């Protein structure tokens, strides 16, 4: 029997607090010269209820190959690998983005591997959360809770941010409880840091510490401008360099997860690099920012749009970009099929082209495992014949053990019809015990039981 994880018990992270002796202090004046001092308090009273604590528990499973010498000693039936399980608990933050649906955004690394996710609301309630979907490459996860009287944050247009804009970070550092820090936007379009696969970070000097991951970065209007995700911490603490995933990027990913049950990554079909001083001088252009295109894939979205080798892409949908990495992150977090306007420099002249993004062919195995544990190892894709097609099955995987083979099309769960990935996930999420999948295989129909 599982023991429900408590927010309070999960907050014990081994930190030591030193109490200072009591000192008499004068109150900060509310006004100077008859003029009220500025305060963030009115804004925070409206926004802090939308930021939650995220407590997780689970089991880390590690596998190690047993040396042949040991297998020989213990006989031919000795196990080929040693499996170790280690329970873990963790604590992070999250942001309510839809009060009606109960949607909460956090970082993928906060909930990765968790068997139980518990949300601590601002008013003291603790609610169990359901994982809707994740995108490990951008470090975003979408959760859902069933609760009334929730407060959601309105999203700002993060593309409008400028260096020097004020920023406020809200989260749950070190399990101390909700904490607010303030600063400014220090830089935009940070990439190449090796933190995530897709990087296009907002940099801020608002203090972000362990436990702030998944929390909110807001502007002075209390609007969400980013999801706090990482810090530079040579000594283990905050040094004034923190990073947040832009709200527009988060919104693109969330929309795809809600609509399709997964992220359908957009693909432009180019290879390139950051524009350097040497390249700029060689091409006789003055700009120092952009993505230099050194290869265009045949029949790709870029090829069809007329993008050529040697082009320098300097903007996406009218917003300037600083690097090829920023271009890659923006494109990859837009959904497949999106129409995108690219501003480019070709032979010294400025041009604009519009491309319809293709769809990434990367494995959907991780998404299959999130739909149901016994589907792990399968690659799922919405079929034109109204269903979910199994495009591949890994040998020895749970999906293979369930009896699924390449080419099967899932068209139903028990008595519920299924015509896409979102419908399949919805039909499976509330099922208890064994589930019957209706399968079309060649010209026949059959049922497979998932246990």
TrEMBL record:
EC number assigned by the record: 1.3.1.74
GO molecular function, one term: 2-alkenal reductase [NAD(P)H] activity
Domain of life of the organism encoding this protein: Bacteria
Domain PDZ: residue ranges: 257-348, 354-443
Database matches in SMART domains: PDZ
Classification via InterPro entries: PDZ, PDZ_sf, Pept_S1C_Do, Peptidase_S1_PA, Peptidase_S1C
Pfam families: PDZ, PDZ_2, Trypsin_2
Active site per the UniProt annotation: 109, 139, 213
Keyword terms, alphabetized: Hydrolase, Oxidoreductase, Protease, Repeat, Serine protease, Signal
Entry binding sites for substrate: 109, 139, 211-213, 229-233, 268-272
Family that this chain belongs to: Belongs to the peptidase S1C family.
Protein's name in the database: Protease Do
Species in which this protein is naturally found: Shewanella halifaxensis (strain HAW-EB4)
């Amino acid at each position: 029997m599982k023991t429900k994880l408590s927010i309070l018990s999960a907050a014990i992270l081994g930190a030591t607090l030193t109490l200072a002796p009591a000192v008499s202090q004068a109150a900060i004046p509310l006004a100077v010269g008859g003029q009220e001092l500025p305060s963030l308090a009115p804004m925070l009273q409206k926004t802090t209820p939308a930021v939650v604590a995220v407590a997780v528990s689970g089991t880390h499973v590690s596998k190690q190959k047993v040396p042949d010498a040991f297998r020989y000693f213990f006989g031919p039936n000795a196990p080929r690998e040693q499996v170790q399980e280690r329970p873990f608990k963790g604590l992070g933050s999250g942001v309510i983005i839809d009060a009606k649906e109960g949607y909460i955004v956090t970082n993928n690394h906060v909930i990765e591997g968790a068997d139980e996710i518990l949300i601590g609301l601002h008013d003291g309630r603790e609610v169990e959360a359901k994982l809707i979907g994740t995108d490990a490459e951008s470090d975003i996860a979408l959760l859902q809770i069933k609760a009334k009287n929730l407060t959601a944050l309105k999203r700002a247009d993060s593309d409008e941010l400028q260096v020097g804009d004020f920023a406020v970070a809200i989260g749950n550092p070190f399990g101390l409880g909700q904490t607010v820090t303030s600063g400014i936007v220090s830089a935009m379009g940070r990439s190449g840091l090796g933190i995530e696969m897709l990087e296009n970070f907002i940099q801020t000097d608002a203090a972000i510490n362990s436990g702030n991951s998944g929390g909110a970065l807001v502007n002075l209007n209390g609007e969400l401008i980013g999801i706090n995700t990482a810090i530079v911490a040579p000594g283990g603490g905050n040094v004034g360099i923190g990073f947040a995933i832009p709200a527009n990027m988060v919104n693109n990913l969330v929309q795809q997860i809600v609509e399709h049950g997964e992220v359908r990554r957009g693909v432009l079909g180019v290879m390139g690099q950051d524009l350097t001083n040497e390249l700029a001088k060689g091409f006789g252009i003055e700009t120092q920012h952009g993505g230099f295109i050194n290869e265009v894939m045949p029949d790709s979205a870029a090829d069809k749009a007329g993008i050529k080798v040697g082009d320098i892409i300097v903007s996406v949908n009218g917003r300037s970009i600083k690097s090829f990495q920023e271009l890659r992150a923006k494109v990859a977090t837009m959904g497949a099929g999106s129409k995108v306007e690219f501003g480019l420099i070709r032979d010294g002249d400025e041009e604009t082209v519009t491309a319809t993004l293709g769809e990434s062919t990367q494995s959907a195995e991780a998404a299959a495992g999130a739909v149901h544990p016994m589907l792990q190892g399968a690659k799922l894709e919405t079929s034109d014949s109204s269903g979910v097609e199994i495009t591949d099955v890994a040998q020895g995987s749970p999906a293979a053990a369930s009896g699924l083979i390449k080419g099967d099309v899932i068209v139903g769960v028990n008595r519920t019809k299924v015509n896409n990935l979102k419908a399949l996930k919805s039909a499976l999420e509330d099922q208890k015990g064994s589930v019957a999948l209706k399968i079309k295989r060649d010209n026949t129909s059959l049922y497979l039981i998932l246990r």
